[in-house]
Amino acid sequence: MSYEGYTVYLCCNGHRNYYDAYDDTSVECEDCGAAAAWRYDVDQTNDSGMEPVLVEHKPAKTEHCPTCGHGKQVAEQRFELPENAGVLLVHQESLNVPLGPVKFRDNDSDKVFDTEDAVQEHKYRK
Asked: What phi, psi does 91 have (nearest 5°)?
């Protein structure tokens, strides 16, 4: 049996990045170049898996051209780093965003639960 899935990373500044589970790469933020500060592995071996629902720290910022109305994103969305899920990869003192709570989304049903165990119970009740 093989493993299928992906990894969600947050950098020290709270930017979210996704990588395939088999990507052999150094993990630096694609938005700001900062080191990865938190990770969560989403196992999709037997189903769509579950991904943490992250708490937004700052929304993305978009500016629009006054002439044509074309929008350009000038600041990426930032998230709090979950304190009750995943793996914190750095010391808390090096974070530029706060730690916060997290919920979990079942990717098959798109329902949100308070714990990973609650997602599993929902899956097995079907």
From this structure: -70, 145
**Spatial separation of the C-alpha atoms in residues 72 and 50, rounded to whole Å:** 31
Q: What is the domain partition of the chain in residue ranges?
A: 5-101
Q: Degrees (nearest 5) of the Cα angle 125, 8, 46?
A: 35
Alpha-carbon span 29 to 32, nearest angstrom:
6
Q: Are 15 and 32 in contact (CB under 8 A)?
A: yes
pTM assigned to the model: 0.72
Q: Evaluate the CA torsion angle 37, 116, 48, 51 in order and state its sign.
A: negative
Mind listing the pLDDT tens digit for each residue in 27-62?
788 888 888 889 888 888 877 777 888 888 998 999
